[in-house]
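Data card: per-record layout.
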Amino acid sequence: MTKGAASKVITKLESKGLAQRRLAEDKAREQVLRLTSAGRQLVPKLARSADDNDDFFFGHLKTAERAALMTQMKELILHHQLKEIPVK
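The structure for this 88-residue chain is written out next.
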């Protein structure tokens, strides 16, 4: 994820009251990011949702098939030098 993309995500999290950021002490170019209480409460729900999504789409695959799919996807990313999520 690029710095710009990460910044946009963090801004959205801040606007929803899920995260806060501040400048790091002694380091002018660094920021400290922390989840708010609401953000921390949301993490387990999001993790369950992600696990359910993985099971729905990939649960029927054997471990070796999942590994092969991951390898192929990584090869495509490298070959096409993808830096951002394609939207087409």
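Known properties of this structure: The two ends are 18 Å apart (CA to CA). The chain has one domain: 3-79.

See the next section for split statistics.
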